[in-house]
Amino acid sequence: MKLRVLIAVVLCSFAIPAFAQRMLEPPLPATGNVTLSLDEYNRLLALANRPGKAAEAPPLPYVLNRADLKMRVTSDDVLGSIQIEGETLGANSTKVPLTTGMTILDARQGSRPLPLLLDNGTHVAVLPGASEFAVNLEAGLPLSIETGRASFALPVPSAGSVRLTLTVPGDRANVQLNHGIITHRASVNGNTEIEATLTPGQVANVWWATREVVAPVVPREVRFLSDVKTLVSVSETDLQVAALADLNVVQGDADQFAVVLPDGFEVTSVNGPTLESSEIQNGVLLLKIAGRGHSTHEFLISMERPLSDAKASAPILAFENAQRETGEVLVEGQGTIELTAQESGGLKRLDVKEINPYLRALSRYSLQAAFRYHRQPNESPKLGLEWTRFPDASVLSAVAERAEVTTLVTSEGRSLTEVKLTVKNQAQPFLKVDLPAGATILTADVAGEKVKPVQGADGSRVPLLRAGFRPAGAYTISFVFQHSGTPFAKKGDSDLALPKMDIPIGVLEWEVFLPDRYKVKEFGGDALSASLWPAERNAENGRLYGYSAGAGAGGGMTGGSVNMLSMNGRDYSNLMVIPSGVGLSYGQLAGVILDPTGAVISNAHVEVRNLATQATSSSSTDTEGRWLASGLSNGQYEITASSPGFQTMRSVISYDANNPASYQSMLRIGGAMQTVEVTASAPMLETESAEISTRKHKKDRNAPAPAPPPPASANVYNLQQRVAGVLPVPVTIPRDGTSYRFLRPLVIDEETRLSFAYKAK
């Protein structure tokens, strides 16, 4: 009975947890169909058919993490083991290059043999993908033994880090290596052990001295030929020397070369393909050779020493015990320098174009002198240098060949000035203009198109270039500025000023128009009256001036002997020869056409006819009334000048082509009423009073005082009220009043000032 009760209790204990778990589980949904929309169904199908994400390929198929080399030197070989650890990154089997240039005795991966492939001299293992690996190699290398020296070349695996443990027979052997660093050195049981960190992927050369007794070999005497090409550079602070030495060994086997260093020079670098090392002992540079059997050697030796004055001796290097010494010397100088070279001891001067091209390729500055030598036993080449250094000048980016300036001054003191520059410009974008106080730029143009000046903190700037404009030669820029000035009194002094401009100006021509009611004299300032300049200069400037027997205070020309057109009722000549024909070439004929008031006539038709051959040449006058005919021969010519509203003028001249001349013609007003366009020209000189004026009025004491002349131009007096900022339209300078001409050569970043005294007439 007890047994039955016990069994019932046990069964209840197992049933109660199962029943409780069944009670905690949520009820299952009833079976049946689920209704979905077509869009949800299609989305479920798209999600079900979406391809899985492709696995990304690793950037490298394998990685070599580290390599440990344990090598020992035997009597004839170098043997040891190499352990390489790494990881393959790809999913498939991967070829992993292990080492090259070694003899592999055995290869294992763990405890299993590892087959290797030989691919172009490299031992390659095929390892499974995406796994770490550790490979053990047993390898050997040949040992090179020479007299007192043993060495071998160790190819270093291309791993992340490479450690070498090397055991060399002999206590305290001086083991050396390149492409690595020795971190530990010790003597153990009569052997020398070193530990080193090597450069991956390089070939480390290991060598040390040995005590092996080898049968002595009588060395042959070393004989070699030397050719040294020397570049001497004179800089501002140092004298630098670069020597390119070419040595040819004709007998023996050289292990080093010796070069005597000049006093005061410091060796900065020594290079060469066969150079193992270099050192300086007692003023001698020793060049030690790597290996044996080389018949040619090339070295590049660089030296320098500081300069304390403007002269020095250029060193010429010599190799000790050379059988023959030849060479070349090239001297260069930094900056603007005038160098004098004094050679002796077999140096022969030659043209710098004949110097060796390799030596010329080393040069960086301007070449000054070149020499060649063949050293003889009883002479030593020497080269003394002495120089004068000049400061470097800045390069001009823009220059104005000429400036034509026209200024109109009113009796209220206001002035309107146009500055026209003929510019050659390389890269300068703006012209800096330092205007006088109270002056304002009204308009500006570049090559005939309007531009807008810029106002900077240090002055105004007129553009020298504009968008899309690429000048190929000289072109014209101009700007007009207004200055308020000081009103004129009955008499007093006044002055005018042109602004400073930051480009050099070759010749400045300034024409000033002053009110007729004032008599002006005592001109002063920076510019000279055009009357003081020779006729040749004015012809070069492209202007034709008249000549008179005297000169006034302002413009005009002197030195002539013919009568001038005047404004006092004197007779006019229809044709007058301007005394100077300077500026004309062989077979050219030129002239200027004026009206009875002395103003030039533009667009007048001029015909030059040869009376013998009837050959005709036609021309028209420009805006200044000038005309030109070319290709004429000697003979009689008829010059016919005509213009609407004027009578036709005909004159016969005798022309000499070897002495070309310029003619001044005057056309009288015609009978028919026609509109005639004339522009003001240079004033004519009054030969009796030497006074410049465009019109001379006879004085009558009983006559009333003449009324003041009308205003020169309404836009001059009211310009400040009508103009705000830069005008988008051109401003024409009215040519009204008495004209005075001035010239000034070579204006460089400075003002041009003009002063004068005046008195009301």
Structural key phrases:
single chain; 761 residues; mainly beta; eight-stranded mixed β-sheet; 7% helix
Explain the overall architecture:
With 761 residues, this protein is mainly β. It contains six helices and 55 strands. The protein has an eight-stranded mixed beta sheet with strand order 5-4-8-2-1-11-14-13, with no helix packed on it. The longest helix has 23 residues, at 2-24. The N and C termini lie far apart (164 Å). Mean pLDDT is 79; it is low at 535-582 and 671-726.
Mean pLDDT level: 79
Number of strands: 55
Helical percentage: under 10%
Low-confidence stretches: 535-582, 671-726
Query: What is the count of DSSP helices, taking H or I runs of 4+ residues?
Result: 6
| Alpha carbon gap, first and last residue | 164 Å
Strand content: over 45%
Strand order of the largest sheet: 5-4-8-2-1-11-14-13
Shape label:
flat
Which structural class should the secondary elements be placed in? Answer: mainly beta
User: How would a textbook summarize the main sheet?
Assistant: 8 strands, mixed
Gyration radius, in Å: 51 Å
Summarize the structure.
The protein is mainly beta. It has 6 helices and 55 strands. The chain is 7% helix and 48% strand.
